[in-house]
Protein 1
Amino acid sequence: MTPPNILFILSDQHSKEALGCYGDTTGATPHLDRLAAGGVVFDSAYCASPICGPSRMSLMTGRQPHENRCWLNGDVLNSGTPTYTHALGAAGYRTALIGRMHFIGPDQLHGFAERRVGDHSANWPGNPTFDHGALSGTSGPNAVSLSLSGPGVNAYDLKDRDATAAAVDWLTAEGRRQQGGATEAFHMTLGFMLPHPPYVADPEDHAAMKGKVAPPARAHPGEDEHLWHREWRDICDIDRLDEAEVARSRQAYWGMVQRLDTHLGQVLEALEAAGLRENTLVIYASDHGDHLGNRDLFWKHTFYEESAGVPLILNWPARLPAGHRRSAPVSLTDLAATMLDAAQGAWSGGGDSLLPLAADPDAPWRDAVVSEYCVGTRDSYARPHPSVSRMIRRGRYKLCYYHGYPPELFDLEADPQEQTDLAADPAHAPVRAALLTAVLADWNPDEIARALGQRDRDAALLADWARRTGPSESHRWDMPDGQRPSLAAE
């Protein structure tokens, strides 16, 4: 078969809870739901780390965060580490990156031949950061992102509008190129910022979700909450959330999802109009999820399904079945191998191709996936000591390992909302022991903690250097003139 074009659409912080193909009833995602109906939906996909940068660098390389040594958003992926884009270029593909990817450091391409509409964030930690103006502080894990929520102007939506326009133009030109006889296939990675907070939606989208968004389904765990999570609450300065703020933030989030879906629909329409749809593998995923008020939490940073679980859709009319679902646990680190399998190219990184499983639910597949979240002591959401944690999902069970703390164990078949920790249950002692062995088999938490200490020292020096010397930046998005992030009256 002729290798397909590949369109990889990656959003930021899109929870499966806000997708019709995963059970949402608000009607916010008609284009994504149509993509899912024509393809294969993965019900148990996970990110390599429940935070933006490490998750993205791992899906680029197919390697785990500790293998990339990218644990936090300021970490630089080594330019000598092959990415799926290097491999696709080697296989003869035209490659382009449009919009968000969160590369840090001097290499803002990592194998892409072309990049349009760069990142909003600084290339170098220590350089001036993005100015959210009246919404300052609302993009991170901070209670102000809930109090300053609702309808308004979200800079991330402005950026995504530019990325959408650039992607439509690029695909239109690509259609003309291929219709003119060019045989070289394309790969485009299109990175959207939405629905990452600020929890501020375009007023029209915000109004469209009024009365449609249900309250969170998972309650605050109360006094029995695991110590690691209680410490996280203290870091974020949240405990019992205000119901009105939760409802307003969730309404804004679904409004942002609706806007994301609108952008995506325009891109898929351009792909169709260019005559490229039949033999294009379209992949949709997000880098991690969002708690959205469940457990009285927002944002990500945990191994709960709302945070570490991600949407994943594969649609390829020429090869994959329509309207199918797969329950096997998979990882975003499998996407690089998947794309190179489709491209019939060589791949030296990690992960396994999802194409056999997507085509056949009985295809052989490994029995486990992992995710890790490791933080040093110098970041704004750090603990007084390195926080080294890892999750393994195998079959119906998920074990969360926190170095220096008791583990957690959940039976996702009997307890899909992860309300009952079975780690201390004698009846589950064999499962706990087996998963503890597995989660630590190729991962040494003491070595990770030492590496994080060195990472902190290195990062501090590089940030001081950037502040003093102001290194030049490339592929950076600038806000349109006359536009400023703001809240509007409801």
Protein 2
Amino acid sequence: MNTQQFAPISLCEMQDVRLMNRVDTKYALCSAQLNDILANLSDSYRIQTIDEVMVASYRTVYLDTPLLDMYMLHHNGKKERQKVRLREYVDSDLAWFEIKQKNNHGRTNKKRIQLASFNVYATRESEELIRSNSQYALNDLLPQLGNSFKRITLVNYALTERVTIDTGICFDNFRTGIHSDLGSLSVVEVKQSGASYSAIKEEFFNRRIHPLNLSKYCIGTVLTDHQIKSNRFKTKLNALSKIAN
């Protein structure tokens, strides 16, 4: 993937594009499609660059109840739902405790606090955050699924849109011990505060690449737990398989 074609944007400048309350649109692409599309977008976006690094490493741990209540709400089609996760920006040695809330209008609202360590999340601040923003208590939640990937972040010149491109997506289930991955598939997420022009969405539309509403937590859980209820996600897994092939 050629990242050198994009002008850089610093982490400091990125503070103006945090988009903690936003609308997300997701797509899944094979690597050949992605490279072809990115070649046409260098005039529309800059690339997040930290210490000359343009491709960042991420780690995530998803927390859920012992009965996987958050997974089941998503599986059962509930519009209002949450994810609770730990997120580590590996190259920057930064870790966060995050709550992502999706409402019935499709908007995502994210609350987070910084952690001193990725491995120590049960802090007073984390307990207060989840008590104020969730129906769950922190001691009701367990680490259920690990996830790692590489991410490129693009920002449009108007600073109204952020595009994340995740590759090398892997999953490890802490309950079953099963490892899986998405192979050569990339997940692209377009994040906007509201309706506005998007160069990358126009590229997708012109190429008849349609949005695919998928959750890494749910897809990763299905791929690594062969006993879990998963009927609702079979169509999406089939779609991912067709894209990969």
Protein 3
Amino acid sequence: MIALIIANGDDVDKSLIKNMHFDCVICADGGLGKAERLGVVPNIILGDFDSVEPSVLEKYRSMNVEIEKFPTEKDYTDMELSIEFALKLGYNNIILVGATGGPRLDHSIANIMLLEKYFNLGVNIEIIDNNNKIQIISDNTDLYLNHKENYFISIVPVTYLISGLTLEGFKYPLDNVIVKRGSTLCISNEIIKDRGRILLNKGIALLFVSKD
């Protein structure tokens, strides 16, 4: 089962949601406004509600949508609280939209780093926006990606290094290499065959599939 969490970052195109499969929708604070524009009715709304219109919140309250209010001064972001709520409901596969962009770069980076935190707890989380899909790859990855015109593939090590990285079907192939954290070796590669293959022996990295 898959939970969709809508946050208050950049808007996403309706077509992106239309092609997704999800079983539960959680709105993180101002993400409620985005759900409203997308025509998605949430199952749960949570946050401190410092970035949501009171009239919009009341609309869903009158529809008996579950609302969880948290204090403004808290130890977790609304996004992390939403992920924790999804876990309590039994969802270990989570899609985040509205998790990037907006004026606050710190929120975007924090949301991306949540992928690693929860990966280490056995939870699969992806961030999707209009131009990017971000996920974790790790030990013994053997992943195929289809070629898409004007899409770029980037791999950013999270652990001190990743080892045994092989890229097949790419413009810049690699064969069983070690890449250290902070290296830009694997930024903006391209799949030039019908599909590309990514093999990773050991380590954790962020995989970005990005549309130019």
Protein 4
Amino acid sequence: MKPSTEQIKNLKGQGYLINRDTDNFSARIITGNGCLTSTQLQQAGEAASLYGDGTIALTSRMTLELPGITYSSIPDFMSFLASKGLETGGTGAKVRPVVCCKGSTCTFGLYDTQALALKIHERFYEGYHSIQLPHKFKIACGGCPNNCVKPDLNDFGIVGQKVPVIDSASCKSCTRCNAQVQCPLSAINKNGVALINRELCNNCGRCIKNCPFGAIAGEEVRFSVYIGGRWGKQVRIGSRLTGLYNETEVLDMVEKAILLFMRDGVQGERFANLVDRLGLETVQTLLENQDLLEQKNSIIQGSR
């Protein structure tokens, strides 16, 4: 059975993409944070063998893509996935699946990226799934300033930070300063005691573990935020907000950014365009105060 243009459009909104030069589809199986159990991977493989062409591709948004599914077999495929606790999605002008690096296990990771990504997935991908936005909205969680997952090329990017603090009384003025040697940016120098050049330091936290006398302590994990990043035909590096935020503040800021996009975004424009149109200072003020959350119900009602 050949699908109509309208059927193809409707299926795309459910995570089924037409395969070029065929009438078959690829199904995108989403993950909450880029993680699947071994059982889920086996089940996805079984679905690919039963309904697709037997292959699975990994997408840049940490979803699984199963190609070669015929239009007539999609209902059975959906039922099979539902019985295994798997689901398709991740397309359209909506909050997209969250991406995160492996900061949960990486030696450089400053926080549990997968746990934060799962919170964002549940609160915003699932919580706002029925709501159409002016365009897609991408979120990325980076575990440290290495930026492996390119947070600043997403609509909303989060980067773990750990601000080093010198305890001058504990510094022994060692001839060879372990923290200085380990600093990848040469941001530590000595003038009797260790000093940190804040203009060079990117809060990666690597120096904190490397003084045997505990002369460099670290505050609790904070997050830097980038907004308005975009990759593709028109590239825009995300603008970094001036503050450092805790997890609760960051989660609220994600929601405020989505609400702002719903309220002030123009149909077909990316969040990057809105940031440029309103101005970074204005957008930062809106994301840092509570007005948008207080207007949440009216903004959502107005978008329906």
